[in-house]
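Hey,
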Amino acid sequence: MSNRRNFLKLSMLTAAGIASSRVLASSGSNDTLPQNIIYSEENPGRWPKKAGSHLPMVTVEGKKVTIKTEHGMSEVHYIVRHTLVAENGDVLGEKTFYPTDEQAISEFEIPDGYSILYATSFCNKHDLWIMEVNI
């Protein structure tokens, strides 16, 4: 259990680091995600056929953000975690899933003052996927 906990902590820190690096990148330096580490719709890397079922889909209604990953959940292949990160690296929410969960859906309330968010979805087989969301 502690290995899983450490893995999840590392995933959260990675997501925050990604968002922070994107802030730096948007200030004028390299504006790309690391290749074959983090995947997006624009950069599916080695998983070009997996974007549809691994990208976090985000809806915003007022201050409520819902993240859903259209992915089956089974003992051998499932979405492990969603994380919602602000552009400045603040982690605004996180939810861990288990193979027994019916689906990967999470809801978060966002505080005022945020306009760009990053939703992440981590699959136990197909790595970390990220979606940028403009509020």
